[in-house]
Specification:
The protein is 53% helix and 0% strand. The two termini are 30 Å apart. The protein is built from six helices and no strands. Pfam families: Myb_DNA-bind_4 (PF13837).
């Protein structure tokens, strides 16, 4: 079996990742957490239960790539370019639109970011870093 970061994700694997990612506790822990290895180890274990054999590094890389692609398409749509699209845009929109407002956005809107950017992000999986 081919492994490593270069192996392409199948549609079923991406759907499984999105289903785990969409869980409220996972979204809450991922938002704003910089040291998130423990969260991705947990995600990789959950994916394994669903029949997807990916390590935590592959899960994190796919998460970052999907998030980047989503934000690129979302920015294009907000700028009036509706020709830009991606396969799982609506699934990602459902997951990412519930993220708390980031500090930069809050400051631009003139609101106090103190209460909006403090989600409980301590991972429950106990990663030692």
């Amino acid at each position: 079996m081919e492994s490593g970061a270069g192996k392409h994700w199948t549609e079923e694997e991406v759907k499984a990742l999105l289903s785990v990612w969409s869980e409220k506790n996972i979204r809450k822990q991922l938002h704003g957490t910089l040291r998130n290895k423990g969260i991705f180890i947990y995600i990789a274990k959950r994916l394994q239960e669903l029949g997807v054999c990916r390590d935590w590094k592959q899960c994190r890389a796919k998460y970052k790539n999907l998030k980047y692609e989503y934000r690129t398409v979302k920015y294009a749509h907000n700028s009036g370019d509706v020709t830009k699209t991606m396969k799982f845009f609506h699934d990602l929109d459902a997951i990412l639109r519930y993220e708390p407002v980031t500090q930069v956005q809050a400051e631009e809107n003139g609101r106090c970011p103190a209460t909006e950017t403090q989600p409980n992000t301590s991972p429950t999986t106990g990663s030692a870093q």
